[in-house]
Fold:
Amino acid sequence: MGKNLFKKNFTPFLILLVVAVGFIGLERFSLIDSLKGGLQNITVPVQLSLQRSFGSISSSFAVFSNVKSMRDKTASLEQENALLKAENAKLKRLQEENSLLRKQLKVGQQKEGSLLLANAIGFSPFSTKKLLLMDKGSENGVKDGDLLVIGSNLLGVIVEVGPKIASARILSDPDSKIPAETENGTKGILTGEFQASVSLKNVLIGDRLNVGDIVFTSGELGFPKDFVLGEVKEVKKTDQDLFQEALVTPFIDFSKIKQAFILLRKQ
Structure:
Protein backbone atom coordinates (compact mmCIF):
# COMPACT_ATOMS: atom_id res chain seq x y z
CA MET A 1 0.00 0.00 0.00
CA GLY A 2 2.92 2.35 0.83
CA LYS A 3 4.52 1.65 -2.52
CA ASN A 4 1.36 2.43 -4.38
CA LEU A 5 0.96 5.73 -2.53
CA PHE A 6 4.55 6.69 -3.33
CA LYS A 7 4.09 5.80 -6.96
CA LYS A 8 0.87 7.83 -7.15
CA ASN A 9 2.48 10.96 -5.68
CA PHE A 10 5.75 10.60 -7.59
CA THR A 11 4.23 10.42 -11.07
CA PRO A 12 2.99 14.08 -11.29
CA PHE A 13 6.31 15.24 -9.84
CA LEU A 14 8.17 13.36 -12.50
CA ILE A 15 6.08 14.88 -15.27
CA LEU A 16 6.68 18.43 -13.99
CA LEU A 17 10.42 17.72 -13.74
CA VAL A 18 10.58 16.51 -17.32
CA VAL A 19 8.71 19.58 -18.57
CA ALA A 20 11.00 21.93 -16.63
CA VAL A 21 14.13 20.25 -17.94
CA GLY A 22 12.72 20.41 -21.43
CA PHE A 23 12.10 24.18 -21.25
CA ILE A 24 15.63 24.71 -19.82
CA GLY A 25 17.08 22.77 -22.71
CA LEU A 26 15.06 24.66 -25.28
CA GLU A 27 16.06 27.95 -23.76
CA ARG A 28 19.74 26.95 -23.66
CA PHE A 29 19.87 25.82 -27.26
CA SER A 30 17.74 28.81 -28.45
CA LEU A 31 14.98 26.48 -29.50
CA ILE A 32 12.36 28.29 -27.42
CA ASP A 33 12.32 31.20 -29.91
CA SER A 34 11.66 28.80 -32.76
CA LEU A 35 8.86 27.24 -30.79
CA LYS A 36 7.42 30.69 -30.02
CA GLY A 37 7.62 31.61 -33.68
CA GLY A 38 5.79 28.44 -34.66
CA LEU A 39 3.13 29.00 -32.09
CA GLN A 40 2.75 32.60 -33.21
CA ASN A 41 2.39 31.47 -36.82
CA ILE A 42 -0.56 29.39 -35.64
CA THR A 43 -2.12 31.75 -33.10
CA VAL A 44 -1.75 35.11 -34.88
CA PRO A 45 -4.03 34.23 -37.86
CA VAL A 46 -6.56 32.83 -35.43
CA GLN A 47 -6.35 36.00 -33.37
CA LEU A 48 -6.76 38.19 -36.45
CA SER A 49 -9.70 36.12 -37.60
CA LEU A 50 -11.32 36.45 -34.20
CA GLN A 51 -10.73 40.22 -34.23
CA ARG A 52 -12.33 40.49 -37.67
CA SER A 53 -15.27 38.38 -36.53
CA PHE A 54 -15.79 40.44 -33.41
CA GLY A 55 -15.38 43.62 -35.50
CA SER A 56 -17.95 42.38 -38.00
CA ILE A 57 -20.37 41.48 -35.20
CA SER A 58 -19.81 44.89 -33.61
CA SER A 59 -20.40 46.60 -36.97
CA SER A 60 -23.57 44.56 -37.48
CA PHE A 61 -24.89 45.62 -34.09
CA ALA A 62 -24.00 49.24 -34.92
CA VAL A 63 -25.80 49.02 -38.29
CA PHE A 64 -28.84 47.40 -36.67
CA SER A 65 -28.89 50.12 -34.04
CA ASN A 66 -28.62 52.83 -36.71
CA VAL A 67 -31.40 51.25 -38.81
CA LYS A 68 -33.69 51.06 -35.79
CA SER A 69 -32.91 54.69 -34.93
CA MET A 70 -33.64 55.75 -38.52
CA ARG A 71 -36.91 53.81 -38.50
CA ASP A 72 -37.95 55.48 -35.26
CA LYS A 73 -37.10 58.91 -36.70
CA THR A 74 -38.98 58.12 -39.93
CA ALA A 75 -42.06 57.00 -37.98
CA SER A 76 -41.89 60.17 -35.89
CA LEU A 77 -41.60 62.34 -39.01
CA GLU A 78 -44.49 60.53 -40.69
CA GLN A 79 -46.67 61.13 -37.64
CA GLU A 80 -45.72 64.82 -37.58
CA ASN A 81 -46.45 65.05 -41.30
CA ALA A 82 -49.87 63.44 -40.82
CA LEU A 83 -50.68 65.89 -38.01
CA LEU A 84 -49.60 68.83 -40.19
CA LYS A 85 -51.81 67.58 -43.04
CA ALA A 86 -54.75 67.34 -40.67
CA GLU A 87 -54.12 70.85 -39.36
CA ASN A 88 -53.75 72.23 -42.89
CA ALA A 89 -56.99 70.54 -43.95
CA LYS A 90 -58.78 72.02 -40.94
CA LEU A 91 -57.29 75.46 -41.66
CA LYS A 92 -58.34 75.22 -45.30
CA ARG A 93 -61.88 74.30 -44.25
CA LEU A 94 -62.00 77.27 -41.86
CA GLN A 95 -60.70 79.59 -44.56
CA GLU A 96 -63.36 78.35 -46.96
CA GLU A 97 -66.07 78.86 -44.35
CA ASN A 98 -64.80 82.35 -43.54
CA SER A 99 -64.69 83.23 -47.23
CA LEU A 100 -68.23 81.92 -47.68
CA LEU A 101 -69.40 83.92 -44.66
CA ARG A 102 -67.76 87.12 -45.92
CA LYS A 103 -69.45 86.71 -49.29
CA GLN A 104 -72.78 86.04 -47.59
CA LEU A 105 -72.46 89.10 -45.36
CA LYS A 106 -71.87 91.28 -48.41
CA VAL A 107 -75.34 90.34 -49.67
CA GLY A 108 -76.79 92.38 -46.79
CA GLN A 109 -79.41 89.97 -45.46
CA GLN A 110 -78.73 90.77 -41.80
CA LYS A 111 -81.86 92.91 -41.64
CA GLU A 112 -83.88 89.74 -42.23
CA GLY A 113 -82.18 87.78 -39.45
CA SER A 114 -78.92 86.12 -38.44
CA LEU A 115 -76.95 83.66 -40.55
CA LEU A 116 -76.08 80.12 -39.49
CA LEU A 117 -73.67 78.04 -41.56
CA ALA A 118 -74.82 74.43 -41.94
CA ASN A 119 -73.56 71.33 -43.71
CA ALA A 120 -75.81 69.37 -46.04
CA ILE A 121 -76.27 65.75 -44.97
CA GLY A 122 -78.27 64.67 -48.01
CA PHE A 123 -81.86 64.25 -49.08
CA SER A 124 -84.23 62.53 -46.71
CA PRO A 125 -84.54 58.82 -47.58
CA PHE A 126 -87.85 58.56 -45.72
CA SER A 127 -89.80 61.05 -47.79
CA THR A 128 -91.01 61.28 -51.37
CA LYS A 129 -90.60 65.05 -51.10
CA LYS A 130 -87.45 67.01 -51.84
CA LEU A 131 -86.29 67.60 -48.27
CA LEU A 132 -82.62 68.48 -47.85
CA LEU A 133 -81.26 67.57 -44.41
CA MET A 134 -78.97 70.09 -42.72
CA ASP A 135 -76.83 69.44 -39.64
CA LYS A 136 -78.28 72.24 -37.51
CA GLY A 137 -81.48 72.11 -35.50
CA SER A 138 -83.46 73.66 -32.69
CA GLU A 139 -80.41 73.53 -30.42
CA ASN A 140 -78.87 76.07 -32.79
CA GLY A 141 -81.96 78.26 -32.94
CA VAL A 142 -83.39 76.87 -36.19
CA LYS A 143 -87.19 76.96 -36.53
CA ASP A 144 -89.90 76.35 -39.11
CA GLY A 145 -90.04 79.06 -41.74
CA ASP A 146 -86.35 79.89 -41.71
CA LEU A 147 -84.78 80.14 -45.15
CA LEU A 148 -81.96 78.16 -46.74
CA VAL A 149 -79.73 80.44 -48.82
CA ILE A 150 -76.41 80.66 -50.63
CA GLY A 151 -75.41 84.20 -51.44
CA SER A 152 -78.49 85.95 -52.80
CA ASN A 153 -80.01 82.65 -53.97
CA LEU A 154 -82.99 81.21 -52.11
CA LEU A 155 -82.73 77.42 -52.01
CA GLY A 156 -85.69 76.50 -49.87
CA VAL A 157 -87.62 76.81 -46.62
CA ILE A 158 -87.11 74.95 -43.33
CA VAL A 159 -90.23 72.82 -42.74
CA GLU A 160 -89.11 70.24 -40.15
CA VAL A 161 -86.82 70.83 -37.18
CA GLY A 162 -85.26 68.36 -34.77
CA PRO A 163 -82.76 69.07 -31.98
CA LYS A 164 -79.75 68.61 -34.25
CA ILE A 165 -81.15 68.31 -37.80
CA ALA A 166 -83.46 70.46 -39.90
CA SER A 167 -85.19 69.61 -43.18
CA ALA A 168 -85.47 72.20 -45.93
CA ARG A 169 -88.09 71.99 -48.67
CA ILE A 170 -86.12 73.01 -51.76
CA LEU A 171 -87.55 74.91 -54.73
CA SER A 172 -88.05 71.82 -56.89
CA ASP A 173 -90.31 70.09 -54.33
CA PRO A 174 -93.90 69.86 -55.67
CA ASP A 175 -95.19 71.46 -52.46
CA SER A 176 -92.93 74.49 -52.88
CA LYS A 177 -94.86 77.57 -53.98
CA ILE A 178 -93.19 80.97 -53.72
CA PRO A 179 -94.56 84.34 -54.93
CA ALA A 180 -92.14 85.59 -57.56
CA GLU A 181 -91.55 88.28 -60.15
CA THR A 182 -89.14 88.80 -63.01
CA GLU A 183 -86.73 91.69 -63.35
CA ASN A 184 -89.40 93.30 -65.57
CA GLY A 185 -91.98 93.14 -62.80
CA THR A 186 -93.97 90.23 -64.24
CA LYS A 187 -95.49 88.27 -61.36
CA GLY A 188 -96.30 84.63 -60.89
CA ILE A 189 -95.92 81.67 -58.54
CA LEU A 190 -92.65 79.70 -58.61
CA THR A 191 -93.75 76.08 -58.28
CA GLY A 192 -91.71 72.94 -57.84
CA GLU A 193 -92.18 70.09 -60.28
CA PHE A 194 -91.25 66.45 -60.12
CA GLN A 195 -87.53 65.64 -60.46
CA ALA A 196 -85.55 68.91 -60.60
CA SER A 197 -87.83 71.20 -62.59
CA VAL A 198 -89.13 74.56 -61.41
CA SER A 199 -91.83 76.56 -63.20
CA LEU A 200 -93.13 80.11 -62.98
CA LYS A 201 -96.90 79.71 -63.23
CA ASN A 202 -100.03 81.88 -63.12
CA VAL A 203 -98.44 84.56 -65.28
CA LEU A 204 -101.03 86.56 -67.20
CA ILE A 205 -100.88 85.91 -70.93
CA GLY A 206 -100.36 89.57 -71.71
CA ASP A 207 -97.48 90.09 -69.28
CA ARG A 208 -93.95 90.33 -70.55
CA LEU A 209 -92.05 87.07 -70.08
CA ASN A 210 -88.87 86.28 -71.98
CA VAL A 211 -86.10 83.68 -72.02
CA GLY A 212 -83.19 84.97 -69.97
CA ASP A 213 -85.31 86.89 -67.45
CA ILE A 214 -84.08 86.59 -63.87
CA VAL A 215 -86.74 85.58 -61.35
CA PHE A 216 -86.80 86.98 -57.80
CA THR A 217 -88.97 86.62 -54.72
CA SER A 218 -91.68 89.28 -54.84
CA GLY A 219 -91.79 89.86 -51.09
CA GLU A 220 -95.33 88.49 -50.60
CA LEU A 221 -96.76 85.82 -48.25
CA GLY A 222 -94.03 86.49 -45.71
CA PHE A 223 -91.06 85.88 -48.02
CA PRO A 224 -88.35 88.54 -48.10
CA LYS A 225 -88.08 90.48 -51.34
CA ASP A 226 -85.39 90.18 -54.02
CA PHE A 227 -83.95 86.76 -53.31
CA VAL A 228 -82.83 85.18 -56.59
CA LEU A 229 -84.80 82.10 -57.66
CA GLY A 230 -83.39 81.36 -61.11
CA GLU A 231 -83.42 82.20 -64.82
CA VAL A 232 -86.16 81.68 -67.41
CA LYS A 233 -85.05 79.02 -69.89
CA GLU A 234 -88.29 78.42 -71.81
CA VAL A 235 -91.67 80.16 -72.14
CA LYS A 236 -94.86 78.17 -72.75
CA LYS A 237 -98.02 79.94 -73.92
CA THR A 238 -100.83 79.83 -76.45
CA ASP A 239 -103.28 82.55 -77.49
CA GLN A 240 -106.20 80.52 -76.15
CA ASP A 241 -104.83 80.38 -72.59
CA LEU A 242 -105.41 82.97 -69.91
CA PHE A 243 -102.03 82.27 -68.34
CA GLN A 244 -98.53 81.49 -69.53
CA GLU A 245 -95.74 79.75 -67.71
CA ALA A 246 -91.99 79.46 -67.91
CA LEU A 247 -89.40 76.81 -67.17
CA VAL A 248 -86.98 78.28 -64.62
CA THR A 249 -83.49 76.96 -63.87
CA PRO A 250 -82.03 77.81 -60.42
CA PHE A 251 -78.43 79.01 -60.39
CA ILE A 252 -77.56 76.47 -57.68
CA ASP A 253 -77.46 72.74 -58.39
CA PHE A 254 -79.34 71.30 -55.41
CA SER A 255 -77.70 67.88 -55.80
CA LYS A 256 -74.26 69.40 -55.23
CA ILE A 257 -74.96 71.50 -52.15
CA LYS A 258 -72.39 70.81 -49.42
CA GLN A 259 -72.85 73.89 -47.27
CA ALA A 260 -75.46 76.60 -47.07
CA PHE A 261 -76.66 79.28 -44.68
CA ILE A 262 -79.84 79.07 -42.68
CA LEU A 263 -81.32 82.54 -42.36
CA LEU A 264 -82.71 82.60 -38.84
CA ARG A 265 -85.58 84.96 -39.37
CA LYS A 266 -86.66 87.44 -36.76
CA GLN A 267 -89.85 86.67 -34.91
